[in-house]
Amino acid sequence: MSQWFQLGLQNGNSPLMEQLIFFHDHALLVVILITSLVGFFLAALFSNKFLHRYLLDGQAIETVWTVIPAVILVAIALPSIRLLYLIDEIHNPALTIKVTGHQWYWSYEYSDFDDVQFDSYMIPSNELSSGMYRLLDVDNRLPVPYNQAIRMMITSDDVLHSWAVPSLGIKMDAVPGRLNQSGLLVNMPGVFYGQCSEICGSGHSFMPIVIEALGESDFLKWLELQI
């Protein structure tokens, strides 16, 4: 989760988020290099006293400053397109979870099992126990097995919502009358926090998401209790 005065992205806890962070750093390096080069040229231009009365064109330099930006754009576009395809790929999911957004709470349904569903509400500030996070903790966390591919089916029951967990690299709109699909794979056991990322009314700030990644044996024990 985010920390005070944090400037960078949250630590990636899924393969997809790690790839997104790598691409972010790659694109940011290109931006810094371009900004530095253009800044150097501007400084040189303002401090340069040399003139050339008969310089009308320079085909060589014009070719260079046309070709180099094109190469840079390709170097950014290729990994970006690869990531877009990776986001949509879901390989043999071990589990399917349906997420439904409401005003203002989430409902979860494990579609592979009969009658395994529950609602998840934010815990009010006056009911928080020691160690809980204000506006982030919920009464029912979403248990998932780690190192397992999971298919998330996301929709809404009323208005637009957005189911987002930054450290897992997942953000999908919940649209009424439409079922959106996204993949989820958690690298390690732990608790991961997110929030609704679409302004959905007066309770928008009170729709947290808490995912608890468990080992397979612990997840099966929890599942047995639900069934």
Domain module count: 2
Low-confidence stretches: none
Number of helices: 3
Major sheet size, sense and barrel closure: 5 strands, mixed
Mean pLDDT across residues: 90
Describe the strand arrangement of the main beta sheet, using strand numbers: 3-2-1-5-8
How many strand elements? 10
- Termini gap: 31 Å
- Helicity, as a percent range: 25-40%
| Overall morphology | elongated
Please trace the helix and strand order, writing H or E for each element.
HHEEEEEEEEEEH
Rg, Å, rounded: 24 Å
Strand content: 25-35%
- Helix and strand composition category: alpha+beta
What does this structure look like?
The structure is a single chain. The chain is α+β, with helices and mostly antiparallel strands and 227 residues long. It is 33% helix and 26% strand. The strands form two sheets. Strands 3-2-1-5-8 form a five-stranded mixed sheet, with no helix packed on it. Helix 1 packs antiparallel against helix 2. The radius of gyration is 24 Å and the shape is elongated. It starts with 14 loop residues before the first helix and ends with a helix. The mean pLDDT is 90. It comes from Artemia tibetiana.
